[in-house]
Design brief:
Length: 171
C-alpha cells in the first residue's frame, strides 16, 4: 500500500492531534508511546464522517488509504484505511510504532512471531483500539466481514514522506 497525501480539514481531529502531540512529548520508548497514543485515540476516536461519502466506499481493487493529517515536524501521521469485504494486507511489520482504531465494520488481525508462526488472532470491532511497536509487530489485517470496514491508523512518522508504514513484507 502506498500512502499519498490527501489532507482533509482537521477541525474534527483537533483534540486527537493535540492528544497525540501530548503523548509524543513524554519522550518515552516506542512501546510506551504506542500505549499513550492508544489512550488518546480511545478518547478521541473519530466517526466515519471524517471521510467523504466517496472515500468511505473504498476501492474494488484493494484496500485504500486516506491521509487525514501529517504533523509538520514529521513526528506522526493519521491515516484512514478503507477495506471492502475480503481485502487484506500482506504479512508485514512497521518502521515505527503504530496505533489503530476501528470506526466502521470489523477487521480481523493475525499476529505472527519472528519465525512467522501464527501466535494470535483477534476480531477488532467498532471502538476497539490497539497499538504496538517493533519488534513484535508482525501482522496481517483482513476484512472478513460482509460490509466495508474503516480504521484510523496513527504512525510515529510522516508516512506520506516515506511512502509506506511497512518496513518488511513476509511470504
Amino acid at each position: 500500500m502506498t500512502i499519498t497525501a490527501q489532507h482533509l480539514p482537521v477541525s474534527e481531529l483537533t483534540d486527537l492531534i493535540d492528544g497525540v502531540r501530548t503523548a509524543i512529548a513524554v519522550h518515552t520508548d516506542w512501546s510506551a508511546t504506542a500505549d499513550l497514543v492508544a489512550d488518546q485515540l480511545r478518547r478521541n476516536l473519530p466517526t466515519p464522517a471524517v471521510l467523504t461519502a466517496e472515500q468511505r466506499l473504498g476501492s474494488p481493487d484493494k484496500y485504500c488509504s486516506h491521509t487525514l493529517y501529517a504533523d509538520p515536524d514529521g513526528s506522526f501521521s493519521i491515516i484512514a484505511l478503507v477495506w471492502r469485504p475480503g481485502q487484506l494486507t500482506r504479512i508485514h511489520d512497521h518502521v515505527t510504532w503504530c496505533v489503530f482504531g476501528v470506526i466502521q465494520g470489523t477487521e480481523h488481525e493475525e499476529l505472527y512471531d519472528e519465525d512467522l508462526n501464527l501466535v494470535g488472532r483477534s476480531d477488532n470491532h467498532v471502538g476497539d483500539v490497539s497499538g504496538f511497536a517493533p519488534p513484535g509487530d508482525i501482522h496481517r489485517v483482513h476484512n472478513t466481514g460482509d460490509t466495508t470496514a474503516i480504521s484510523i491508523h496513527i504512525y510515529g512518522t510522516d508516512v506520506t514522506r516515506i511512502g509506506s508504514s511497512a518496513r518488511r513484507f513476509y511470504n
